[in-house]
Amino acid sequence: MGVTLSIPTLLKQAKIDQWLVDVMSPLILPFMDSPAWFFLVIALLTYVLKLMFTSFLAVVTLSVALLPLSIDVGMSPWIIAMVVLIASEVWFFPFQVDWHMLAYSTTDGKGFSYPRMLWINPIYALAYIIALIAAIPYWRYLGLIG
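Now predict its structure.
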């Protein structure tokens, strides 16, 4: 647990955070004029990163890389953090969520079925993106988006 919690500090000390900003900037900054496209790209990056990392590591990596960019795009860091956090809850394969595997095995497969969840989760991923776009006027009203 201590090693996991020290990852953000390690990324900063090793200057990996700046490297991540440099790598992610060309992918994200072309879309900064349109919050809808900006959020879509961040959500898709989170989905892809979560295929390789756990939710926690995906959130930490993207937060370290994207929170410094939030000031450049005139957006509250809170918005970027929420986009990444919620997108990290989307999963497409059973191995991506350990508590689903635990729930499935402790109920002898009667709690839910993976085949059904596998077609529901892409719908959830799309609903999440639609909700992000729908939230833009409210976040502008709150002054969180410039």
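Residues 114-141 form the longest helix (28 residues).
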